[in-house]
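Why should sequence recovery work at all? Because a backbone constrains its sequence more than one might expect. Tight turns favour small or flexible residues, buried strands favour hydrophobic ones, and helices have their own preferences. The token representation captures these environments compactly. In the example below, the structure is given first.
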């Protein structure tokens, strides 16, 4: 699964997601700044200078509210927030990602998305929320496409399902740490910015019932010459089973072989 670059609008899939598959694939998005649209502010000890929080997924993953075990998120209200000045849509978009044999996952509505921001105390212009939701949904659709690329190499006839997922903001994966170290050693060649978010998705293979964990690192990439922002997703099976290790080695070997043939 090689690197793929594109400049799609929200409704156009690139030619991602959740990237050689051991490298990252870039996705441009013309309707937002070149980073995750939300700043998650982890309160810190008082200092004389405000701390700039890292950008992360807008949905809370703390334990202060009842948590849905399938997505590790609290139930989000559709009611307008206090002091909200503009009406926001409450319709939820159905994703292309199978939840089980008869249903697909639904994305939060703009109102739910906004309520999640307010709940965390983040000031967000209401007129930008719908664009943020589009970007959020777009990135997750691309992540699923990348997962399908991995899964089709295991069994082309398999129709995997997303059983559950968990956001892990602030937890840097071992691979992301490696790229940060590479960026520190060779800043002119490698990106030295950490991913702005991380998700773990548990994919179920219907034919066998096997569950496979995928790690998704979300990056902001340098913008296009016209200013259009670019997002990069690194999607791969976690190295927590023999089968996944075999997948990763096979993909890396294939990428090296392809590169060797192209340069011969």
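From this structural description, the recovered sequence reads:
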């Amino acid at each position: 699964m090689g690197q793929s670059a594109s400049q799609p609008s929200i409704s156009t899939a690139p030619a991602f997601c959740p990237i050689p598959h051991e490298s990252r694939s870039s996705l441009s998005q013309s309707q937002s700044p070149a980073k995750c649209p939300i700043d998650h502010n982890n309160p810190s000890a008082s200092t004389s200078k405000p701390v700039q929080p890292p950008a992360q997924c807008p949905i809370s993953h703390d334990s202060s509210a009842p948590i849905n075990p399938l997505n590790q998120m609290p139930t989000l209200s559709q009611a307008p927030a206090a002091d909200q000045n503009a009406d926001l849509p409450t319709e939820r978009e159905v994703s292309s990602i199978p939840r089980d044999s008869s249903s697909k996952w639904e994305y939060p509505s703009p109102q739910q998305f906004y309520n999640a921001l307010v709940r965390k105390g983040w000031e967000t212009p209401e007129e930008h929320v719908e664009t943020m939701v589009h970007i959020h949904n777009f990135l997750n659709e691309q992540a699923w496409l990348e997962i399908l690329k991995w899964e089709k190499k295991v069994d082309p006839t398999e129709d995997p399902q997303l059983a559950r997922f968990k956001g892990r903001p602030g937890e840097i994966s071992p691979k992301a740490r490696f790229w940060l170290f590479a960026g520190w050693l060779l800043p002119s060649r490698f990106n030295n910015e950490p991913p702005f978010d991380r998700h773990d998705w548990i994919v179920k293979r219907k034919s066998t019932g096997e569950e496979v964990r995928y790690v998704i690192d979300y990056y902001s990439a340098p913008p296009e010459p016209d200013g259009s922002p670019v997002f990069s997703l690194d999607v791969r099976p976690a190295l927590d089973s023999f089968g996944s290790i075999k997948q990763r080695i096979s993909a890396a070997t294939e990428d090296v072989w392809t590169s060797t043939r192209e340069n011969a």
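A few observations help interpret the result. The mean pLDDT is 76.
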